[in-house]
Predict the structure.
Amino acid sequence: MSGVARTRGVVLLGVDGHVIGVEAHVSIGVSGFSVVGMADKLVTEARDRCRSAVINTGLEWPGPKITVGLSPAELPKRGPTLDLAIALALLAASGQVPRDDAAALVVVGEVGLDGRVRAVRGALVAALAARAAGATRLVVPAANVEEASLVPDLEVHGVRTLAGLVAFVRGDAPPDMEIDADVEDPPAPADDREVPDLADVRGQYEARQALELAAAGGHHLAMTGLPGVGKTMLAERLPGLLPPLDQQAALEVTAIHSVAGRLGSGGRLITVPPFEAPHHKATDVALVGGGSGVPRIGLVSLAHRGVLFLDEAPEFDASALEVLRQPLESGEIVVTRSAFSVRFPARFHLVLAMNPCPCGRGGGMGGPQSPSCVCTPQQRRRYLSRISGPLLDRVDLRVTLVAPTLADLEFGAHDAESTASVAERVRDARARAARRYADTPWTVNADVPGPVVRRQFGLEGDAVRPLERAIMLGQVSARGADRVVRVAWTVADLAGRDRPTRSDVHAALNHRDGGASWAA
Amino acid sequence: MGGLSDERVARALLSHLAEPGDRRIGGLLRESSAAEVVDMIRTGTTGIEAEERYRVRLATARPEEHLARVDAVGGRLLVPGDLEWPRQLDDLGDAAPWALWVRGTVDLRLTALRSVAVVGARAATRYGERVASQLGSDLASSGWSVVSGGAFGIDKAAHLGALAVQGVTVAVLACGVDVSYPPSNDALFARIAADGLIVSEVPPSAAPHRTRFLVRNRVIAALTRGTVVVEAALRSGSLSTAREAERLGRPVLGIPGTVTSEQSRGVHRAIREGALLVTSAAEVIEAVGGIGVDLAPEPAGRTEPRDALDPLTARVLDAVPVRRAVTLESVARTAGVTPAETAAALGLLELSGFVRHGPDGWALASGAPR
């Protein structure tokens, strides 16, 4: 028996899906199975998985000679998502399912040896790609149906087994094999994350203030403080202060988490800005993505449109911190290979946390050092200088956290504001900034480049004096001046003022250099 | 705003027509706008003797091209009235620059607020270069910007010293900001443009004439809070920077050499005539750090007396305990004002040297006025 048939599948590259034409040719000749079209090992292994699956489903394995062509040929194809499409093309080429019906479908899924269909990563991205390619019907593993159904104007059908797919294409009722098969357990849902409330934080007025400024102005934030003072607790609360993701951002973020296999089967859009806290032992590749073969997505992309929290920041490899500069500048990571390049979105709020010294017990200001600290002044300086100047230059807000006293805990509780009420102020401040930047490429104060800050949004009259004074006293560097001005705008936006006043600049100066003044 | 107003273009044009420091043009600009002055030059009504000289370059004048060229190298044109214009240049009177071409990433006016000129001979000794480089590093580490020319010797050593510690350094050139003169300092200029500032009174691509070096020196002196001469022979041009600083009432400092060194004779004579002998960055800062009254719209002493504080700020200051550090909330409770008011007041108090913030919280600064 011989013949040619085609259908379509999807492969993932970066966070984009690409619809792939899958052709199968069954012919007379020397027995063999070849795949052409830049396929990686996992794709060529599809031969063995498909063969077992077809036979165990009770269908006929065609032959003797089989050629599978994947197009476009120049696109690298990786992963098992093409299994189901290859199996379908083979069955159509050998006349076991109608060719025209197979050709009209886009099919995504991995098959097991017993003919079951396994869930895949990136079903949402696959669905977006299928719709963009003009497809109207998509078949995905049953466990991925809800996720793929987030894409409107696309008919999504889920299958549990290869038998189920064959029945669907033929227009038959689902066979017993399909009905009896379990739907694979989805991975733990990622989006049932409750963002903790700011009202739980007692005391820490300045840090809460810094968090509010960070959220309102889009500023990156660095926190210095002893272990246990609450740095992580505060950072975790930043996503709740940020505005919920809009439709476009939610799709982007959900697609990224789908590709990374971090999306639950709940099939819900991620609308809360993500929070990602990589460990300081994470490698450069784990952080920003890349690696050998087809580039993988990095942890910082999982923080896209959310918060990237680097605890113990000076403990990260210098090279790992260095690679963060690209996404901080451009909002994305580009991994270039000889034949292609992959773009991973990575526009995030950076929150750095560090101890005042390597042993974590240091402190004291002018007065005696904390008795238990064993660090020399040199060690302390070296520890803090591990965060490079160019990286720190992008961090507008610096705050030193101080452990609250018993009195703060006792008497301060009633004025610990909730996330909801702070988020409302943040929303208004962002709206005010967005109006100001209406005809520009920027939306928040932190986006505005230094030269533009100086020329168009400089401090005027009275308001510039505290800054001049701080510079003359050496409390702010010439390079740090733009940061103070940006933060002063955010202070003014939060207060509902049209321009920063003198006291807004005083408030901004409070957040300029937490720690540096005593660390130097 | 950064738009291309007629005045901005006129000042760009003027920087092409007339040589920097021309007091007659400066005098006209006191009464008239730059656009009017350009018109006077065109129509021959400036009333300046031999005014046809200014018209010589009129035929080749392309101010828009110059503006495009400075834009292309990531630079900008500053004119008086811009937020970034260093107002201390007004002290030069009619000889004040009417426009500055600037390349670099930081704000010129704010950078100059805390800056020192480090100048000296091109033909410096190894001793002089070492001292200049160490001085540049030490000044920059203490948050001071270095201002100098673009020559070999002391200028270059001072810039490199500041750059080595990620400091901000400013090169004031006698040629266009996109011209590398001397050409072998090309790499130095690229680094200064990336991390500091390159400043010039003449438009992009203008060549460095001999006279331009001398008039350029008055800008170096006027931008900074004091001038340090590291090495200078008796006839060194860097002494003109020192003389200009003296005229402006800014401190003039000299680094001594051995009495037998030709390259230090100019410095030694300057010291005999009243310049202050200094041997380290700390001594330089001590000499120039106190002043600033002329440069800033507000005196910037290390502290201001308590009774000058407004009542709310004074109340917050009273709430900061004498011996230990406390949280902001604690200060707010003791003072009986809101945390937000406390935050702004503490910001002002820290700026004025009354209080400090450290890992334990807010405390009185040592040596704070009582």
Notes: Chain B touches chain A through 54 residues (CB under 8 Å).
